Amino acid sequence: MPEDISAAERMVREWQERATEKAEKFGRMQAQIEQISVTESSRDGAVRVTVGSSGMLDDLVLAENAGNRPMAKLAGEIMRTVRLAQSKLPERMQEAAASTVGEGDEAVRHMLGQAKRFFPEPPEEPEEPPRRPGVQEMRIGPEDDGPRQPRRPNRAPRRPGPDDFDDEDFSRGSFLR
Question: Where are the alpha helices (DSSP H) in the chain?
């Protein structure tokens, strides 16, 4: 019987060592995950955000040119940049898990699945108006989407003839003719 007891003690001791080692690995993974932060910027650099491993906003920096746009557009750009940063968190968590515990552990797979479930997918890039090569036409004045009148060739304005003259009508110019 003493042999059975020593084998059981050895088995319990090995189990405790594996559990202690696993707990240490999970502790290192947790410490690495807590240190994760992701910083992203908008395409034009006007918005820069940093999110922590929880996905919460840790920092927001707006460049001077950010104030030159409508507030609704600025708010949308801030949110798009935050979502972009948050979407990179699951990948960073996966890297931390792979370097400490390994991805084969059931608890790690569950944690990574939850991270992918709760953090957003990368936002789609907003559509920009297509840019045409060459010189662009610039119009000044109110935009009019209605039909356009064909342009007349450059001609001198019509002058009133002698029969059109009215002594009291000065609407076409000076009274000194």
Answer: 2-34, 71-87, 89-100, 106-118
Residue 20, classified by CB atoms within 10 Å of its CB into exposed (0-12), middle (13-18) or buried (19+), is exposed
The pLDDT tens digits of the residues spanning 67-119 come to 889 999 999 999 999 999 999 999 999 999 999 998 888 999 999 999 999 99
Exposed, middle or buried: residue 56 (CB in 10 Å: 0-12, 13-18, 19+)? exposed
Intervals of the chain under pLDDT 70: 1-2, 126-177
- Cα separation, 3 vs 8, in Å, equals 9
Q: Is the C-alpha dihedral spanning 33, 34, 35, 37 positive or negative? A: positive
